[in-house]
Design goal:
alpha/beta, TIM Barrel, 4-stranded antiparallel β-sheet, 16 strands
Length: 299
């Protein structure tokens, strides 16, 4: 059974990876399973300098999902390269660094500093940063500029994580690919809000946060399907994947890889169970190559 997928010149042993921001730098989950079982570990978003993120409260559970406004808290690229990356390298899996900047020059500097990983995932679409930053992920011209600038300074496979908070995600997908993206991740969380009716105050200190979990899965699958028809690069699908069947839906819609996110907070071995579920499906359907599933929805 062939489970391998490719992103540019990078081969992953299987299509299952972690979604940035839900797996830290891998240490906690490594207590429960061998990270070598995964196709890739995508670490939480990194910036040039350490960031404390947003003040609490910054997580709120919703029906079939979760709101978060963590605000991209992280240890910074220098500490990651020194303290986390060498530890991650002991595992037989690909290391993908999610990164961000507050302006184009910071994206470029971050990409240059992360040359020790296997691939880069550009986060241009976090909904719980302050107003203005989100323009990178919603304005095609701004997206083209920042992707193009990063493309010039790195030979690593470049993945761009798209925002679902747009009218037509295919416009942003085409803009990113035309500017040099080798693959696309979709979707990031949906802009959302919750209110405590007793205090009449927002549940999150940042007021607005990002909604993830099973509640957004149908939206994510629809967007993967649309983007798969619009561009010719590998897609990494995410948004509410809780089991193998969910992952297969994304593969059929056109995703070549899948990322497990919110499920990690419920079950630390969720990503391995997702992989097992994909394998079970392939065996049940007598499918020998994962690539025979990708984009296989019958419409």
């Amino acid at each position: 059974m062939n489970l391998k997928i490719k992103i540019k010149n990078l081969t992953l042993k299987n299509p299952v990876m972690t979604a940035s921001g839900t797996f830290g730098y891998g240490e906690e989950n490594a207590e429960f399973f061998d990270l070598s079982l995964l196709g890739a570990v995508v670490v939480k978003g990194l910036s040039i300098k350490p960031s404390m993120g947003n003040p609490p409260p910054r997580i709120w559970e919703t029906p079939c999902g979760m709101l978060n406004s963590i605000g991209l808290q992280n240890i910074g690229i220098e500490a990651f390269n020194r303290d986390k990356l060498p530890w991650l390298r002991q595992f037989d899996t690909r290391i993908i660094a999610n990164f961000y900047g507050n302006e184009i020059s910071e994206f470029v500097e971050a990409a240059r500093a992360l040359e020790g990983v296997d691939a880069l995932e550009m986060n241009v679409s976090c909904p719980n940063k302050q107003a203005g930053w989100i323009a990178f992920g919603t304005d095609p011209l701004m997206l083209s500029k920042v992707v193009g600038a990063v493309r010039k300074v790195t030979e690593l496979p470049l993945i761009v994580k798209l925002s679902p908070n747009v009218t037509d995600i295919t416009v942003l997908a085409k803009s990113a690919v035309d500017a040099g993206a080798d693959a696309l991740s979709l979707i990031n969380t949906l802009t959302a809000m919750a209110i405590d009716i007793e205090t009449r105050r927002p549940r999150l200190s940042n007021i607005i946060g990002g909604l993830s979990g099973p509640a957004i899965k149908p939206i994510a699958i629809r967007m993967v399907y649309q983007v798969h028809k619009a561009v010719n690069v590998p897609l990494i699908g995410m948004g509410g994947i809780m089991n193998g069947n969910d992952a297969v839906e994304f593969l059929l819609a056109g995703a070549g890889g899948v990322a497990v996110g919110t499920a990690n907070f419920i079950d630390p071995v969720a990503s391995v169970k997702v992989l097992d579920g994909i394998i079970d499906y392939m065996r049940r359907k007598n499918i020998s190559d994962i690539n025979d599933i990708i984009g296989g929805v019958m419409v």
